Amino acid sequence: MSGRLTPDVCIVGGGSAGLVVASGAAQLGLDVVLVERGLMGGDCLNFGCVPSKALIAAARAAQAQRSGAAFGIAPVEPAVDFDKVMDHVATVIAAIAPNDSVERFEKLGVRVLQDEARFVARNELQAGGHRILSKRIVLATGSRPALPPVPGLTEVPHFTNETIFANRTLPSHLVVLGGGPIGLEMAQAFRRLGARVTVLEAATCLAKDDPELSAIVLARLRAEGIDIREGTRVASVERADGGIAAVLEGGARIEGSHLLVAAGRIPNVEALDLDRAGIAHDRRGITVDDSLRTSNRNVWAIGDCNGRPAFTHMAGHQASLFIRGALFRAPAKLDPAIVPWATYTDPELAQVGAGEREARAKHGDGVRVLRWKFAENDRAQTEYETDGLVKVITDHRGRVLGAGIAGPQAGELIQTWCLAIAAGLKISTLAGFVPPYPTLGETAKRAAGSYYAARLFGPRTRGLVRFLARLPVW
Q1: How much of the chain, in percent, has pLDDT values that exceed 90?
Q2: Which residues, in sequence order, are CB contacts of 474 under 8 Å at separation 6+?
Q3: Within a domain: residue 472?
Q4: Least CB-packed of 310, 367, 375, 451 within 10 Å?
């Protein structure tokens, strides 16, 4: 049926950000319309976080069979049935999909329109046969893989994260364009599942991460047999016998059976006709202020489409800020410093807040850098997971400015530091809590405690303790 709709809130996009707003607004009793032109759940459920982590889990199981010798378990080369591996990926998606389904949101009271939306006026959208007029329009249209301007790329078969999880053939040699988180996660997963893998990165792999920490990850990937080539520009790609060839600047050729393009993302905004609504935007996405409002005061943009860091948890956080600010009219501004990011290689890499370079640029000589190696952690020793480092940045007063972890379960361990930064905690709080033994979580306490080591065990303190020792026992 078609007609005119006047909801309290209209959301364009049924991915992570849009679904959080739709669920929250509907449960608060508002009239909500959600417009989604593709699959409910967006990139995260269908092409991103969920399938990639499912594939990584399968690859970890395969790697465990190769890695038992140190434990007295005879290592074996796993027999990988790649078709069944992809069945596992599909099963995981299917298990989560009902949480994001049209049926669930309709039961919550959301009217779901499975159409493409575009502006026809400042506060009015067209979606199929419906005209939607609303005082609160939320754009949550997400992003898609970027294709770099490499000659020949559009003429050769290639994967992106939107297509690789439909593939049922294990590549004999996977060539990956891009050494960011997506490229390296997939490189390691496919290598562990039995493929030969070459990563071609024009600049520096994991360039947005702390170099000291990313070096730990890259060393492990190289040790597992992944050919990682940084500072390598691809002049063109072409078909080759049995697959593809990447022709490098200088004329060298890298031939592979399959090609994965993981060279960043671009926002989905073209179909919206933003200019008709007076909404400022550029190649990075829709322009928003710290409250996520666009240049049209009745329109907000959240998630990947606004050009802020493209993480599912960032999208969900922005959705909660919209609910707080636009619906409850409470103060709600985005603070990027409290939002972490993680790369799910093995070892994992996670960071939150300011990195060392950023902190030194802002605070100068007042910055303290604390380090604690996983090799100093007893639980890591029991599991032979000693490659890793916790790195913490504080100011001269001991306030936590940032933290990064390269090591096992870094995505879990970073959460302690997320809380510290969000709550404005000083390093003394982290040094004073009591974690269970033996756990990887002890690394937080040990890193924090190192802040006081020089002062605690220095000459003045030792002199004071010697003096007190001579006094009568009390």
Answers
A1: 93
A2: none
A3: no
A4: 375
Strands, DSSP E only, in 92-240?
Answer: 111-113, 117-121, 124-127, 130-133, 137-139, 143-145, 173-177, 196-200, 227-229, 234-240
Whose structure tokens read 């609303």? Answer: 134
> If phi over 0 gives left and psi between -120 and 50 gives alpha, with beta otherwise, what is residue 13?
left
CATH of the domain at 115: 3.50.50.60
Q: Which of 264, 236, 268 is nearest to 249 (CA)?
A: 236
pLDDT digits (tens, 9 = 90+) for 246-276: 999 999 999 999 999 999 999 999 999 999 9
pLDDT per position as a tens digit, 337-352: 999 999 999 999 999 9
85 in a structural domain: yes
| Phi, psi (rounded to 5 degrees) for 240 | -140, 170
Q: Which residues of 124-145 are buried (b: 16+ CB within 10 A; e: fewer)?
A: bbbbeebbbebebbbbbbbbbb
Asked if pLDDT for residue 405 goes beyond 70, the answer is yes
Element (H, E) at 221: helix 211-223
Cα–Cα distance measured from residue 472 to residue 474, given in angstroms and rounded to the nearest whole number: 6
Tokens of 421: 């930064």
d(CA 318, CA 296): 18
The CATH number of the domain where 382 resides is what? 3.30.390.30
pLDDT tens readout for residues 407-462: 999 999 999 999 999 999 999 999 999 999 999 999 999 999 999 987 767 778 77
CA dist., res. 474 & res. 463, Å (int) = 19
| Strand partners for 139 | 12, 301
Dump the DSSP string for 316-376. Answer: HHHHHHHIIIIIS-------GGG--EEE-SSSEEEEEE--HHHHHHHHGGG-EEEEEEGGG
Decide if 237 contacts 200 (C-beta within 8 A).
no
| Closest-CA residue to 358 (of 393, 390, 399, 334) | 393
Whether 461 is covered by a domain: the verdict is no
Q: Give the domain extent around 229.
A: 153-263
CA distance 433 to 17: 34
Does residue 8 lie within any of the structural domains?
A: yes
**Alpha carbon distances (Å) from 354 to 363, 369, 375:** 11, 12, 25
Residue 130 and residue 217 in contact, taking contact as beta carbons nearer than 8 Å: no
**Residue 1 scores a pLDDT above 70:** no
Mean pLDDT for the stretch of residues 295-314: 96
